[in-house]
Amino acid sequence: MLSLFKTGTPQADAFLREARPKNLNEYMIQVKYYLFLISLKNPKMVRGGSVYIITNKNRTTIYVGSTADLQARLMEHREKVNPDSFSARYNLNMLIYYENFHNIEEAIERERYIKGKTRKWKEELIESTNPTWSDLSDEVMNW
User: Fold this and answer.
1) Residue 74, exposed/middle/buried by CB under 10 A (0-12, 13-18, 19+)?
2) Cα-Cα-Cα-Cα dihedral sign, residues 34, 36, 41, 46
3) pTM greater than 0.70 (yes/no)
């Protein structure tokens, strides 16, 4: 049965041969687990989504967004590709928070949840992982 299903990468195929799935359901669980392990090592290898928060240098305004490609989206904000956008008008280009998800739908759902919260709640969320509100852009750009 395993010969019917190939992941396309030698590493994944070796992992699954060693795991010896007995049926399609078990195989799919193991593939998802393998993809999860890959995403921990390199988030760009698995197409997913991200939710992010950006601010300006004075931290007076924050923007919550979601995207399928965080690196490209950050460049769009920095280059002010859309000059009439909220982020361009308020000079929002410091990435201060982000979360990665396995698919864009989860990121959009999380974005909506965060947008529904108060400014104080969002500040606490940011400070839970980035207490000094440091710019995390370099971290993301070096993935």
Assistant:
1) buried
2) positive
3) no
Cα dist from 10 to 13, 15, 41, 47, 83, whole Å: 5, 9, 17, 19, 45
**Which residues neighbour 66 within 8 Å (Cβ) at sequence distance 6 or greater?**
49, 50, 51, 52, 104, 107, 108, 110, 111
Q: Show the 3-state SS of 23-44.
A: CHHHHHHHHHHHHHHHHHHCHH
User: From CA 143, how far away is CA 66, in angstroms rounded?
Assistant: 18
Q: Which two tokens stand for residue 11?
A: 């590493």
Indicate the SS3 state at residue 96: strand
Measured distance CA(140)–CA(69) in Å, rounded:
10
Helical ranges in 7-118 per DSSP H: 10-19, 24-41, 70-79, 86-89, 104-115
Tell me: the pLDDT tens digits for 68-94? 999 999 999 999 988 999 999 999 999
Helices 24-41 and 10-19, interaxial angle, to 10°?
A: 130
